[in-house]
Amino acid sequence: MSLNTIEINRLMNRFDSHDSVWLFGYGSLIFKADFPFIERRPASIAGWSRRFWQGSHDHRGTESAPGRVLTLVPEEGATCHGMAYLVTPEEFAHLDHREKNGYLRLATEMTFEDGGRLEGIVYIATADNAAYLGPASERDIARQIATAHGPSGPNSEYLLELARALRELGKHDEHVHAIEGHLEEFTRAAR
Ligand code: SIN
């Protein structure tokens, strides 16, 4: 399954004339920065929550056994903590390719730890994309993540790396850390 959002994202030219653009990462972009950046700073965005509701058929799963990766869902009063990267607009060709399975570039305001706010880009996979899997219990999500595997590696690695990176940032995410707990339980039981 591939919705391939590369062409749609290429039309998002809002920041093309800028020398540099802030990119907000909340998932793999926190722990796997495989692109050059000018600067990186912890940041947050308001009104969004991280959820393992997006299917991964190209990175952490396959067509027949998709993995689950993160997207953001709107939630009043919520704050999503992550990492912001200052990049040149040219980096978006690589980023669009990496995030091609359903993610769209969206302009967003992000807040830095010193309280400063700037506009930039975040990749979001909305409920109407073909790879969207939607809600499930955190236990069922952990069960799916425990077995899925794709070209970028095991789905469990995505979850565990993210959970570790959030701890390093000093941020607790109920959803992510609950799924991590279930995964550890399944791993212990399988020993
Ligand atoms: C992100 O990390 O900001 C987008 C979702 C992902 O690539 O995991």
Automatic annotation (TrEMBL):
The keyword Transmembrane does not apply. Keywords: Lyase. Coiled coil: none annotated. It is an enzyme of class 4 (lyase). SUPFAM superfamilies: Gamma-glutamyl cyclotransferase-like. Gene3D superfamilies: Gamma-glutamyl cyclotransferase-like. InterPro entries: ChaC, GGCT-like, GGCT-like_sf. Its EC number is 4.3.2.7. PANTHER family: CATION TRANSPORT PROTEIN CHAC-RELATED, GLUTATHIONE-SPECIFIC GAMMA-GLUTAMYLCYCLOTRANSFERASE 2. This is glutathione-specific gamma-glutamylcyclotransferase. It comes from Massilia varians.
